[in-house]
Amino acid sequence: MRAPLTLWAVARQTFSQTLRMKLAAAFIVLLGVWLAVLPFVMKGDGTLAGSIRTFLSYSVSATGVLLSLVTVLAVARVISSDVEDKQIYLLAVKPIARWQYLLGRWFGVLLLDALLLAIAAGVIYGVAQNLRARPTNSPLDRRTIETEIFAARREVKPLPPDIDAAVSARLAKLRESGQLRTTVEEYQLQGNLTRKQAEQRVLAEIEKNEFARRETAGPGKRITWKFKGLTLDEAVAAARGTVTLDARKQRAFRVAAPREFLGRLMYGRPVNVDGVRGWVQFVGETDFDVQFAPDDMGRAEIERLQKDATVSLEAEPTFQFRYKVIPQGEENFSSLYRRIEFYSPAGVLEGYDDRDLSVKSVTTLSVPAGGSLRSGEFRVDYVNPYYQPAEGPERKLVISPEVRVSTRDVSILYTVGGFDVNFLQAMTLIFIQLVFLAALAVFLASFLSFPVAAMTVLVLLGAGMLLGWLTDAVKWSGDFTNTLGAVMLLVVKFLMPSLADTSPSEKLVDGIYISWTTVGETAGLAIGVRTILYLALGCLIFQKRELAKVQV
Amino acid sequence: MVEANQSVVLTAGLTKVFRDFWLREKVTAVADLSLEIRGREVFGLLGPNGSGKSTTIKMILGLLFPTRGRISVFDRPPTHVRAKSRIGFLPEESNLYPFLDARETLDFYGRLFHLPRNTRRHRIDMLLDMVGLGAVSYRRVGEYSKGMQRRIGLAQALINDPDLLILDEPTSGLDPLGTRQFKDLIRTLAQRGKTVILSSHLLADVEDVCDRVCILYGGRQRAEGDVEELLAQTHRTQITTDQLDEDTIRAVAKMLQDRGKELLGVKAPRDRLESLFLRIVEEAQQQKVATGGAIATGRVAQFLQAAEGEGRAVIESLLGGREEPAPQPQATEAPAEPEPKTDEQVVTRLVAGPAEPADAPEPEAPAEPSKPASADRGVIDDLLHPDESEGGRRA
Fold first, then answer.
1. Among all residues of chain B, which has the CA nearest to that of A101?
2. Is the pTM value of this prediction over 0.90?
3. A435 vs B296, which has greater pLDDT?
């Protein structure tokens, strides 16, 4: 009944202790130095969007790393120094249960974390908004900033290609020709495997080949992906604007609008002004031009449009298609011509013929989501032309290379929320990680000395960060000959949640929506269960521990 | 409140064996110790260094777990929160948080006892006043000298008005004045019905305050009993008179010889160094010599003398005939005003630095309690209550 009071007393004391340990000051100074040095080390691609992305990425991950260190060091320090410097003698004889002491310490450090995270988040948010308000003379740059960074987008991956039929066909063919048996026997000899293992390896290889075949296209061929479950209706952008120029005779008006709205406009695409559809002409930093059809000019809504009139604006939703193309073969292509086609169940809706300048890195294509593209199901094709158009002084026509677009790198993104909420959710994710780390440190400090406990948490933290990578490494090494490694991986997997999966900085930089569901799942399953487990174990150990030392 | 014949701490066959990392038995720190410490007594644990005093105390406090045997405090296991809420403990070393100031330290421990804010503030003021650190209460404990840290240690041990006070080497690091106040405090608490356990190898201190002692050697109990009984020399008689000349002494010797007794020794009694020291310090205070360091009032905090909320009459009737001339400073100091208010006013005025010219140099002056203390307090007391500065010293 009175446990909360006791917990609160210890937490308060821990908070002021950690503040006076100057850990907080060190955190603020280090983060400050990091943010100050950042502009000098930031290379970026010269665009404002690039700078903002770099800033967000570095500052958010630096905050996460520094706060993790602060948490681990603070928890390990306050608990083990109590035992080593015997302050626990005075604490343990007060009417406080040992679990109350440990939880109070844990909670106190979390209070410090909350304060520091709030400060860091405030600074990062402020700087990011400040960068966003800077002028850029490229509408494309502005569009990237508004639709790909200061947005919360849902990412939809294509459905995995259906290869079952193709694989069985290939297997049947191999069996018929007798090749299957010889290959299996060969594998058995080579890898010292059982028959079953060898067969599985052959099957895996066929599947791998089949997947690769679906992801590559020779000259004149195409790669196809299917998407399902899109709900683009939510992505309509609305704002209020002011008419700044009335060029009625040209059927055109200039309208000042907020930056985040301007970022969503595309040249030649429809925009609704007071409910009347016009077409976007020029898009600037503070305003855009809209032109109406002759038929619409007589409408009452347009009659009303004159200088300083306030209007309601609506832009059609857009989405982004993202992929990464890698040319195969010896020849080096820095850019590739290609066509991307978007199909509704009824037929082609949009096609983009374009030179792809970012070969081997991610390309993002903004696509207006008109008509039936808005929702449901559709298909996207990457069309590799026969020839690459002539280029350079020789103006030589070349045959297109075979290209590969990995399904892993393909996605469709569309806006479902705002940056502010997403930012808040990203910070919440960081905080959840800190909650977990603090619990882990409590557990270890309940029986280890400061340096040992701190070092152990840091090693586990590293393993947790690399967990995804480690898992992949073991998986792709094929066979589990390295049993020790596999066992170690299982142990780490049991001890640690995969922290990289829940790292918010990448998502924030990409403007990927971090849903409360994500946050909840992270908090509840991966981290919450372990947090409770570690706290309970720590309390149990501390309960059984003799807090005084041998002094005879 | 604990009755006099009720046992507060009970140990049976208490044994503590320390093992090394490989679980090999290294030392038997306490062997088969059976003690019963009853309510309202001052119990002394005596013994040379390494005789198991501290280990015994740590087991009573639940900081160590016994290897064998049983132990109960207020009829509960020592780690029970209910038992612990009635205990005050002053460890051998200070073990305080160096980054907290005196006031924050006491506030923190007060919170752990769930004392309401007002009670906490009231008690902290009184305790700081009692241990003479009111003027330096906003300095960090880490900057205090050892003696001053002991004083804060004592204050924190008393914050919950404990029924059982456990003191490990309580007078180490204290100046004679502090030692004397400590002993007075222990007696006062005992009169109020508290139980006190103290361990020490300063035998004079133990002899002055303890009702019962247990002497340990090598973890085993060598002697246990009433101090008066243990020390009484029933086969000898000591007579103290005015100064005698040679003739009279010879006559007395002859008279004794006639009755078959022998005169074993004649000498002028010496003053105890403690009494001499205290007298000199008192004289210095009367001459208003300035000093830095702790300024102890020698008064026992009011809440330790009378249960809060209860009338003095109730306490007195409870204490009954055992009441010696107990220190009641506030009663003698300002009889015209209601008690708690007076005390608070005095304390507030004393603590509120700037109003007091004598307090002003305190924060910079490195406080050194090993020097004779209390001169400042003497000055202040004189300023505030010209005719009562003596009354406060009676405790």
1. B112
2. no
3. A435
